Amino acid sequence: MIGSAAASTTYGATFEIATASPAAIRRVALVRLGAVTHSVNMEQRYVPLQFSAGSSSLTATSPANANIAPPGVYMLFIVDANGVPSVARMVSVTGNSPPAVTLTQPAANGAQAMAMRLDLTGTTQFGADNDVKQLSQNGYTSGSLLGFSVNGDGTIVGSYSNEQTKPLGQIVMAAFGNVEGLKPEGDNVWSATGASGQPLVGVAGGSMGTLRSNAVEASNVDLSGQLVNLIVAQRNYQANAQTIKAQDTVMQTLVNL
User: Fold this and answer.
1) With bands split at pLDDT 50, 70 and 90, how would you rate the model's confidence at 97?
2) 49 and 7 in one domain?
3) 217 in a domain, yes or no?
4) pLDDT over 80 (residue 131)
5) Contacts of 51 (CB under 8 A, 6+ apart)
6) What angle do CA 251, 252, 255 make, to 5 degrees?
């Protein structure tokens, strides 16, 4: 009979089992039953333990790792020289804290340095061929920039060969209190002057307007002013034409004389 035993133990640890006749004990074992709804259950276990007998107790050594006995609750039996098992005692076998594995990837090829920590909690290993049961991936391979686009708010979004997108920056816009005071520099470039006032810098949206990617800007000239200039030029041309006509008439009259 088992007088008392530890309620829990960890892998590789020793624990005491109190019994009336330690010298008469021939076997110490942990037994874990499988689910009755499965004909083949890998959780079933019979784990014999190494032990030594003292004057009033047995000192047993827990299983070495989870490959021998997965974490969980087991029935503890001792068997005497006549092959008679004791009444079972429930013992919980727990795993030791797994070592922390940290991998450091130095910065290279424009990528920042990374520190990765492997968490092995809950992993098990069986004596069988490797077979992937479930695959969960939350990362992606390195990629090169293929192109970019501009959103309506001015955000420049880069597209990479690994099917990822990433904001690269944002275009700023400037507004002026008096746009008519801007100085033209050519090639659709304007510069601020004292008449235009200081630029008010912001992002696209609201009073700043929006940006449109892959579009050609329409004409932004003052059509009314250009029409007035055209009329003035036409009148100047007509006046010059009349002057030439009058001069030609005078010359013809002189020739006739």
Assistant:
1) low
2) yes
3) no
4) no
5) 17, 25, 28, 58, 59, 60, 61
6) 90
